[in-house]
Design goal:
Strand order of the largest sheet: 1-2-3-4-5-6-7
Structural class: alpha+beta
Strand content: 15-25%
Radius of gyration: 43 Å
Largest sheet: 7 strands, mixed
Number of strands: 9
Number of helices: 5
Helix content: 25-40%
Number of domains: 2
Order of helices and strands: EEEHEHEEEEEHHH
Shape: elongated
């Protein structure tokens, strides 16, 4: 670890440079004043071009450029007097329609670093509990476990939703397959037997006239007798017999 260390091209000077055992170079930057988005982006890209991982710490009351979140980096705060560090976790995203199909399910739990437009949750830790790794600063164990548990819960629920969708899709395909392999049915209204040829047409008249619900073509093998001429309406009922006149009116020709 070295203080006030210049980069190899002498273009940037890190407040603290740390060299890890695997050869990773980490530049620790402590900012006490506001930086513009363009100013921070230029310094960050200079570090990235030279293979240096930059970690930025801001004073608690200093507004950090939100372009840091756009670049996918966490935001760290420090307090020398309290010997504390702080960072922001991204709160779970809203689970909208078919959220379980999203390519990155980690955002539906607590996540670090947060996204640019996330609701943030500030967490603090002792400076001594903050670690360094190839990707920069590392959360303490209890915070990493909390984040992972939240993401695992979201992933398990997403798996249940996907399994439910798969079961429904299989049920639909099986129902369609059964319908395709089922024998054709008689077209007579509510006839319960399979297609049996012209006999269905023979009983259609009986079925409509009797209004029964369980009649089938097999139960009426003989075609019905058509109504006589006295039944012009075709109702199937016998015509009423003619009424005779009383003897006294008939005698007078009435």
């Amino acid at each position: 670890m070295r203080l006030e260390q210049w980069t190899e091209d002498h273009d940037r000077r890190a407040d603290v440079e740390v060299l890890l055992r695997d050869g990773t170079k980490i530049a620790l930057e402590a900012q006490r004043k506001l930086m513009t988005d363009d100013g921070w982006r230029a310094r960050h890209r200079d570090y990235a071009r030279q293979g240096v991982v930059d970690v930025w710490f801001w004073r608690p009351r200093v507004h950090f450029p939100h372009v840091v979140l756009d670049e996918g980096l966490p935001v760290w705060f420090y307090s020398v007097s309290k010997r504390e560090a702080a960072t922001s976790l991204g709160r779970p995203h809203a689970r909208a329609h078919q959220w379980w199909r999203a390519p990155d399910l980690s955002v539906f739990g607590l996540h670090h670093p947060p996204c640019a437009l996330d609701e943030l949750e500030r967490v603090t830790m002792p400076l001594a509990a903050l670690g360094l790794g190839p990707g920069g600063a590392v959360l303490p164990e209890h915070l990493r476990k909390r984040v992972l548990d939240s993401q695992q819960e979201a992933q398990e629920e997403a798996k249940q939703r996907k399994d439910s969708e798969a079961r429904y899709a299989r049920a639909v395909l099986e129902a369609r397959d059964r319908a395709a392999r089922a024998p054709a049915r008689c077209r007579l209204r509510r006839c319960r037997r399979v297609v049996c040829g012209v006999r269905c047409a023979a009983v259609r008249w009986i079925h409509c006239w009797s209004r029964t619900d369980d009649i089938s073509c097999a139960e009426s093998p003989v075609a019905p007798v058509r109504p006589h001429g006295g039944d012009p309406g075709g109702t199937g009922r016998s015509p009423a017999p003619p009424r005779t006149l009383e003897p006294s009116p008939a005698r007078h020709g009435r």
